[in-house]
Amino acid sequence: MKSPRKIAYLALASASLFFGSVLQGQDPASAPANPAPGPQANPPAASAQGQKPIKSITIEVIVPVTVKDRDGNLVADLRKDEFRIFEDSVEQEIRQLKTDAVPISMVVLVDNDLRKKDEQQVEPSLVSLVAGMSTRDEAFICRFDQFFHEGNGFTKDQDKLITELRRTDMASRPSYAPPGGPFGGPTINGAPVEGAPQINNPSLHAIQGQPTKALDDAVYAAALLLKDRNSRERRKVILIISDGQNGAKFNTHKYDEVRAELLRQEITVYSVATGGAYFDRKFDRLLSYAHDTGGDIYYGFKQTTFSEFYSSITEEARNQYTLYYSPQGDKKVDYHSIEVRVRREGLTILARKGYYGGTFAVVPRK
Questions:
Q1: pLDDT (tens digit, 9 = 90+) per residue, 239-288?
Q2: 3 state SS for 148-188
Q3: 82 lies in which domain range?
Q4: Pairing relation of β-strands 361-365 and 90-92?
Q5: 150 phi and psi, to 5 degrees?
Q6: Rg (Cα) of the chain, in Å, rounded?
Q7: pTM for the full model?
Q8: Is 186 within a domain?
């Protein structure tokens, strides 16, 4: 027989369980027979329970930067605390600075419609491009006039590049469309129609003295060739060798559209303006592409200077400072301006002028 004290204790415990279940909206009949223990003062560590540690997601913007002194020489001894970076005019904290050499993926975009004198200087200089490349670099040789002439693809094989560049005969490719274009006559499945006249007269492209070269379209096409290259592992570069002539009416893609694509892909443009471009002041487009993407422009007057430029460009692209920061500001805006400064005086800083939302790195951090 149970004692009165034990009976009272059991009754009180049953009542507590009943009212506790009602307050929580639970049917007492469905209450578990063995309720889970309450929270512990010192719960076991996540690793002891077999759970993975929680990671946060950090957005990180990567900005390659070139710094030169007054004589145009690269400055390689700057520290992280000497850099300042602003996004949308708001100063950002630089998380990391790297100075490691980075391999290059480069599209070489050669103007196929230069003046004869410029052509004679540029053509033999092209093979010297390889001298500035490392065994980890890769290049894709392309040409343009009114149309984009895609080459044979990316290659790291320097012997193949030299062979391809030596075979470059700029005078042998007149500025006319591939078969089937407005100046090439009709085709079926890419082949000329038998018996139909094929009109390949370059003079038809000179319309009231206006330039017919489509430089903007060529740069856009070159950017698409770099789309599958990882900008975290390789420096993506377009090298334009041109007189800067650009026929606005012959471009499908406008400058702002091309510029946006370059910034989204984090491509740096370097321009080599031929002698004619310098004297005629026709290099505005070449300067704009280089300026907005953090590249540089060189002005050539003779064959030896072109050869020197190529080595300087590859060295500059490979040995840039790389700044990392997590942006603080309005994430709803698509385009963000970037300004890089250094505390040391008398230096020139080359960096891209902005980026578009979605082009940053998403980095998991513990």
A1: 999 999 998 889 999 999 999 999 999 999 999 998 766 666 678 899 99
A2: EECCCCCECCHHHHHHHHHCCCHHHCCCCCCCCCCCCCCEE
A3: 56-99+323-365
A4: unpaired
A5: -75, 140
A6: 32
A7: 0.74
A8: no
